[in-house]
Automatic annotation (TrEMBL):
Family named by the database record: Belongs to the thiolase-like superfamily. FabH family.
An example Gene Ontology CC term for this record: cytoplasm
Top EC class of this enzyme: transferase
Protein name: Beta-ketoacyl-[acyl-carrier-protein] synthase III
UniProt keyword terms in alphabetical order: Acyltransferase, Cytoplasm, Fatty acid biosynthesis, Fatty acid metabolism, Lipid biosynthesis, Lipid metabolism, Multifunctional enzyme, Transferase
Region entry ACP-binding, spans: 257-261
Beta-ketoacyl-[acyl-carrier-protein] synthase III C-terminal domain location: 241-328
UniProt free text on domains: The last Arg residue of the ACP-binding site is essential for the weak association between ACP/AcpP and FabH.
Residues annotated as transmembrane: none
The encoding gene: fabH
Organism per entry: Christiangramia fulva
Domain Beta-ketoacyl-[acyl-carrier-protein] synthase III N-terminal: 110-187
Length: 332
């Protein structure tokens, strides 16, 4: 009997309409379009301006795209994994709300938080359930309303992040398509380098934490950059080696969109010199945290062919990072 693999069978995405350009940021903090473009590759990002809407809104729109495209009855979905670093609320799972709102009333759901690696970890979890034969239709959604945790007076973070959502449907495959291999890692050496200090169990919210702006993301960009370049590149190279893949065999690099220089460094380490193989949309969306990978899949879906070899790579706060090798399962 053929081994069951877990394949991506549909993709959906959503970004809010409001655009925050580098030129607009020039008026908000001391920065320039030139600095942002050369240091990060970002030109603009999307912002969910409606204060009554949270991450669930973005996630629901992305998930609905999949339902529309596939005509899938949402009652057939077994599990919804909601990958996010910005849940609607600290308690009362965002995933549960999203699943109910899209009509996935026979599914169970939970949130998965691993910063920028949340979606990759979520795909791994979904695949494990599917390979084991436990569940057949798993929706993995990556969504973040990063604008809700960004200090728009801090030029070292506000230029980077944006809001967005993407989703994939994963299902069993008996022809060998889907997830082939993965290397997932984490190390708390990064705990101090990228964090929101207050609002958790160590430092619950007080007037003082609000006054000191401790509920926003802060990062030591240089340190994060250094670890991101070395760790993301290392696992990407390793996953190629242990699957006997050369740069010719890799059709697409699907890398977390945090900084164009980090993506380029990873591609270089993989000997991927054909820039058409390196998926890139950071210029339009910035770093959307859990949404970067599925947003790339959605933007480039039409380019993928059945049997193409995709390497996923991510790096995020914690630190969390990893790489995955997936064989694309369909022609669009
Ligand atoms: O999703 C995973 C998590 N995040 C990441 O992966 C981000 C990783 N880090 C980075 O992408 C980069 O470190 C940044 C884009 C955050 C910063 O780029 P950098 O090349 O590492 O700049 P830097 O922090 O070394 O700063 C260089 C200079 C500094 O000025 P001095 O000290 O040389 O005078 C900064 O104060 O640039 C200054 N600077 C800015 N200047 C204009 C910092 N931010 C800005 C800005 N505009 N927005």
């Amino acid at each position: 009997m053929n081994k069951i693999t877990a394949a991506i069978t549909a993709v959906g995405a959503y970004v809010p309409e409001d655009v925050l350009t580098n030129k607009m940021l020039e008026k908000m903090v001391e920065t320039t379009d030139e600095w942002i473009t050369t240091r990060t590759g970002i030109k603009e990002r999307r912002i969910l301006k409606d204060p009554t809407k949270g991450t669930s809104y973005l996630a629901i729109q992305a998930a609905k795209k999949i339902l529309e495209k596939t005509n899938l009855d949402p009652k057939e979905i077994d599990l919804v994994i909601m990958a996010t670093a910005t849940p609607d609320m600290p308690v009362a799972s965002t995933g549960v709300y999203v699943a109910t709102e899209i009509g996935a009333t026979n599914a169970f759901s939970y949130d998965l938080q691993a910063a920028c690696s949340s979606f990759l970890y979520g795909m791994s979890t979904a695949a494990a359930y599917i390979e084991a034969g436990r569940y057949k239709k798993v929706l993995v959604i990556g969504a973040d309303k990063m604008s809700s945790i960004i200090d728009y007076t801090d030029r070292t973070t506000c230029i980077i992040f944006g809001d967005g959502a993407g989703a994939v449907l994963m299902e069993p495959n008996n022809e060998g398509y889907g997830l082939q291999d993965e290397i997932l890692r984490s190390d708390s050496i990064g705990r101090e380098s990228l964090k929101i200090e207050a609002g958790g169990s160590i430092l619950p919210p007080t007037e003082e934490t609000v006054a000191k702006k401790l509920h926003f993301v802060r990062q030591d960009g240089k340190t994060v950059f250094k670890f991101a370049v070395s760790n993301m590149a290392e696992v990407s190279e390793e996953i190629m080696k242990r699957n006997n893949l050369t740069n010719e065999d890799v059709d697409w690099l699907v890398a977390h969109q945090a900084n164009k220089r980090i993506i380029d460094a990873t591609a270089n380490r993989m000997n991927l010199h054909d820039e058409n193989k390196v998926l890139m949309n950071i210029q339009r969306y910035g770093n959307t945290t859990s949404a970067t990978l599925p947003l790339l899949l959605s933007d480039y879906e039409k380019n993928f062919k059945k049997g193409d070899n995709l390497i996923f790579a991510s790096f995020g706060g914690g630190f969390t990072w990893g790489a995955a090798y997936l064989k694309w399962a369909y022609n669009s």
